[in-house]
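Tokens for Nucleoporin Nup120/160. Go.
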Amino acid sequence: MAQWNIVITVFCPDHSSSSPTHALYDVSHHGQYQHKLQFPSIPTRRLVPMEVLPSCTHYKETRINLDWISKSTTTILIPSPSSPDHHYVLAEPEPQLSTADEDIEGAFRSAHIATSTNTFFRPLNRFPRAILWRITDDSHTLTLNSVDFVRPDTSRIDQTIRLRFHAPIKEQCVALADGGDVDETVVYVLLSDKTVYTLRLKPDFWKSESARKRLPDWCRWYCPSTFTLNSPHLLVALDSESAVVALQNGGLLKLTKNRETWVDADGTMETKYYETSYNNSIMSTFKQFLMPFSHSSVAAGTIISLTQWDGLNDEDSEEEPLRYVLSVSVNRALKVWSPEHASPLWEGNILNEPKGSPILNELLESTPRQLVKIISKETELNLFYAITLDPETNSFKIWSARKNSRGEFSKLHDEFPEADLTPTPPKRGAQWEIHDFAVEEKEDTGTYNFWVLWKRHGHSKVHCHELDFSELTEKFDQYTVVSQERLQDFPVVDAGNYTVGSQDVGDFWEEWILFPERFPESVIETVLKVYAKRYPAAREQAYATGALPSRIASTVVACHQEPVDDDSMDVDARSGLAAHWERFAKLCSELDRERQAPMKLALDPYSHFLWVVYADGMNSIRECLELEYILENQSVFVEEPERVISGFVETPNPDRKKLSSSRTKDVMWLIYAASKLSQAWTAQDRQDFRMFLEEYVNQDPMFATIDRVETLYSKAIDGRFSLEFLAELGAILDNISDVFATFGRLYYFFRERGTAQNEAHLTPFGEKVLIKAAQEAIHIDTNTLVNVFSLFVLICCSADSLPLANEPKHPASALAEFLELYFNKVREYELLTWMSKRKLAETLDEDSEDALTNVLNDLSVSDSSIIPAEKKNCPILQLLLQEQMGPTLTGAYGSNVAPYARSFISYLHSQTYDTIAVDTATFLLNFQAYDLAKSFLRFVPTTHWGTYIKGRIHLATDDDEVAAVTFRRAASGLANQQVQSTLAPGPIQAIIGDDASLFGTGFACYYYHVARLFLKRKNYPYVLEFTQLALDTLHIPTHDTVLDAKKMSELEGPLLRVLFNAAQKTSTFPVAYLAAARMRDPETQKAAIGALVKDMVEQGQAQQLISFSFTGLQTLLEEVLEKKCEEVVDIKNEPAYHKVLYAWLVKKGDFKGAANALYSRLTKLKTAEAGLRDPRERTITDGQLVLLNAMHCLERDNAWVFGTERSKEGEVEGENGRLVPGGKRVRREGGDAANERVVVKVEDVYREYREERERNRMLARGRFYLD
């Protein structure tokens, strides 16, 4: 008979605590009452004393998305025990959700929101060491991914493994263990069909597809017989060979399988453990006593939380190490188990209440969580300590595991029975519950950081308490807060505005949505699908192929142009494009909030890094950087300055210790005043100030800083604040003894701030964490710097309206120097902000990927021949991250990410602005991100290299004219020999490639390099220009740079060839002629003359050709022309090389040669017109007259030319086997009589002329002419 468990809650108004009374009913499906268990009400919450001091914020969460993991994923179908095929099966990619699917958000949750997740940490000498596991796809898929922060030098794992099972995975039934003596990760998985899978994953499994295909080597399953009568509820791994399963009846089942019996499925040994109370064990097996617990049913004695402690005996001891398991049940029972005993060694309850206490009848009804954890601290009396959590009261108990005389476990002892260890919730009056906790031992102090994860309606907060057993109560009530990232704050934009500062509203929202790591691609894609479903006009744009930014923009615009067909999506009174953009951003934020459901606190026991594991992401808990700490604690600082100052100075960070308390107090007051000024701005005034500031910091240095500051004040500050506010601001500044000196101290925070011990190689995940922390720090630093700078400008430019009572006089030169420093620092942070906000293109074509791979390999940024997915979409800031910036596991600043984020920012500060800007622009060029490079132009300095890179950017964006001007500006610097010292391996070396030798070796080499750049673009006018410049400056020394004769000779040849080619392409024939004339190689020169003749004759520039003198090249020219004449086949349609040769020879005075050229042309002309002559055509007769004219210019004895005679076979052949009138093509064979030449005299030409006239006359009369 089916049953349902119903819990009825009744509030008793006459009870002082107003706490509920719970009753558990079991009802049959007929609705009949069967049993009733009623428990008296008890107080469940502690009243929080109002005198608790306000908490300070010492830590911050750095949010890490896991979206990039899906870029390199392998999905494996795990066969079921009944499957006939137990081989490796690679799953096909899951189909994308179509527009017809209704539950778009449900599909997103199933694919990306984990129902259970945690992080497992292995010993230090293993890799992967930190493994994140997640359960998704309706509990059918187990996802494994390496989330190590650092890696060995030669190892890299970018693969995500998705293991898909045939049945759902039970909640709380995934456990991992290290292989111990064997380097492997053991994964235990319990499915809803009661099958236990054991996966042994060796290092090759993560790297090699072939290793994953050997499924029998790493995957085994077992169906315990105990599960036939007892349902499993919870699984915990003891080690690589055994696991413990909590049964529904309150007992435990230990499953043991040795490696020797790994292949044999029957080699698993089952060991059962039960409670000492036989009554409880028997009664809890009946279904009528079951109650709902999360997604399953449990009995009162069912264990819902397990943990273990492994003790180590002496190394010489042959005894097995001590091992104890602690458990917490639904009825609050706390038990200690041992593998050697079938029943618990000790029994109690997590509240340490005596038996029969009414509170023990109260059953735990919360969601699954860890309720007991171990502190591995052995003393003379104790084996270890344990901390238990009562989830109903949010209270903790600290227990010590007492030893007996043999050094074994004796009992659990409540160390502080009178202490009330109930943490203060984040907000009084709200129903916050403790979801998880972690204990971190402080190094060499004997105290502990006690981390508490609070949860309420999907929101979470992390607090840190101090556990000091000597002063437990006094210190536990005081805690520090872990703040959230400010990068995730939703921006406030004035309604109806179509511009935000200097940006269009669409550009503003697009930049905010696509900010690196703000939203994973899966969130944005899901929102696009929602828009496609609700806005028919946007369907095509949302599902279009192409880059994500263009799809978002086109989708929003399409929605703006069509009325909404769904009342739930009606545009409100602010209808317009801005409202649609804001709605799209809000949908992304709302969907992203579901991903932030807190799941676990994961503390690395070796590195002490602390992570908050969410449903779809991880957050790193790190120490606040200096400015973060000051800003997060401003409200506390106003009430208790000394408390905040002591927390700032008393820190392991040596950089903070350099500041005295008084100086720190002045700095905090100054930042507080700057924050007040920022809050006094209207949204539009603030945007205007940022816009003007951005314009002025990037102005040409020729403008004086003081002039730019005064202009900025008059345009963006003057008249924006009331006198009352200025008086209030002055009162705040009066707390500072020397305001301008404090400005100088504050400037220290924006400079290099020390470095950590960076030795290890970062993993892709580690790079993400470090860059995300740096992004947040840059965001905070930039806003603070702008606020402080605006205050500085206000003080300097409005001394009358904002007098400072305690301020000593400072010379104007000192103030100008301060302004210059801050102005340059604002400029630097504007650059870093731009780099942190942009990322490389969403998609890279094949050429871009090849370029990216080559550059990363050359610069040792990546040691992989394949571009990792996270590199394609990484923030541009990450391109400057050095590979070996990973922390050792014993950092000098403490165990969190903050020191290494500070180290990276310090590295950026140690580089000059010019170096960062030039390197970044060069990176963008290398990656072919030309649009980003163009928008980055405003940051590129006017140094020699900066000007050159500007030219390269203009060249890449098809602005050749500006590029040419820019290249000319950079010539004087890059031609200097000193520039060679800046050509160390790096991004510039990568972009200039083999032309590195052309820099710093004179103008000619530099101009030759530029000419080659334009040659690649086939922009021949600029190739011509810069090649001429190179030749003109070939013999001009630059400072200490002068080319020797050999170098000039080697360079001159290529220059002349490039010059000739460019002049030829641009039809600049005089330049081409001069280039050919200067060539030294005979073969090259002959080819150039031939090409010059061909181009000029074909383009009708024969007159210009023969006007050239060809000094020393006349014979070569004639040879070229004669060869061209011989190659003519169709005299009527091919270029008139005979006429050009005739004209050249006449100009030269060689009438003999001219006559021969004319006769050769006349012979080919007769052949071309044979049988097709028009009697009115005078081409042949005119040619004969010209020939006669040329022959009459010769001496009578010399007035003859060479011709050919008819062969005996009646065939007539011209030169080189070509036809002459009346003949046909025959094969010429050396001294054949058919090819003998004859002398043609003037009389012969006259005769041929008369015959031609007679032929034309007869043909004109319609008669035939016969020879």
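The mean pLDDT is 78.
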